[in-house]
Amino acid sequence: MAQNRKHQAVSGRFGPAVIAFLLCLLIGGSGVGYVWQKSQISDLGRELKKRELRLADVKFNNERLRRQLDTLRSPRFLDQRVRELNLGLGPAQPAQILRLRETESPLAGESPSAPLAAQPLERGSR
After folding, report:
1. What does pTM read for this prediction?
2. How many Å separate Cα 79 from the centre of its chain?
């Protein structure tokens, strides 16, 4: 006698549905993962562009500040500022210049006979 569907195993009835569900889940998960990955790539690209623009701004500002520092350090500008502020500064007199005598450096492992601070200073000689 032929058996009807009532007597089939439960796994026999739901097997194809479970396989279809898992297949849809796999395809849907892959699609969601693909979209998420593309979104992350887009976000990272925007962040990279923003940081490149910031780097260019910082480099430009750094160059501008370097030029300004060069101007502020120039002797012409310093002389002008001294005159503007009436500081009464001028070039150093030869008697005001201290010259330190350079000594030979000791060989490796030897201690110097006298520390450099204990050596006499020479004033005004060249």
Report:
1. 0.50
2. 37
CA dihedral over 104, 110, 116, 118, signed as positive or negative:
negative
Alpha helices in the chain (DSSP H): 10-73, 75-85
CA distance 30 to 52: 33
Q: 41-52 pLDDT, tens per residue?
A: 999 999 999 999
User: Across all residues in the chain, what is the average pLDDT?
Assistant: 84
CA–CA gap between residue 109 and residue 126 (Å, rounded): 32
Name the token pair of 106: 């000791």
Closest CA to 122 of 101, 103, 105, 107: 101
